[in-house]
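Lecture 7 notes: from sequence to structure.
We start with the chain below.
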Amino acid sequence: MSQFFQIHPDNPQPRLIDKAVEIIRQGGVIAYPTDSGYALGCHLGDKNAQERIRRIRQVDEKHNFTLVCRDLSELATYAKVDNSAYRLIKNLTPGPYTFILVATREVPRRLQNPKRKTIGLRVPDNRIAQSLLERLGEPLMSSTLILPGDDMPLTDPYDIRDTLEHSLDLVIDGGYCGFEPTTVVDLTGETPVVLREGLGDVSVFAGL
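Predicted structure tokens for the same chain:
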């Protein structure tokens, strides 16, 4: 049975943030709000928690997880970023973008794309997510909360609890935060390639 925390979207309660981080560190899987919908998250180094997310989503080893980072300095620890990519990311973060970059050795192999050795990273513009990341001190391994057979992610924390209360350790109710996914941009080549149009504005990549 999952716990259910109602956390204020503008002024997250430190006591509840601390409890949520403790659950993550102990191997828990949580549902939490971002700036582009709810996501599933777990500790970066926890293989068992990662497998639990795979079972919830019913995806295989080829599924790409995202490292949700607190800021650009954290992002640079886990991905190789050249100057042009850094400037672009700096202008778009925090925000609803996922950037595909070449992973550094800090990223466990099981999280990397097996062929390209890449990883998806993002910096969310959501105070609850930012508070979790600041207290945790490292990225959250995350996946959008889309259930098998669905085209859109779950958006209501009460629905999430009713549907997944036996599969999750914690559901954070941070209010409604939309259902449109992030825009995914591949920055591994000479020019950015938009792989998925989502909430983020794609016009900024025109002519780059």
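Points to note: The first strand starts at residue 3 and ends at 6. Residues 3-205 form a domain with the DHBP synthase fold (CATH 3.90.870.10).
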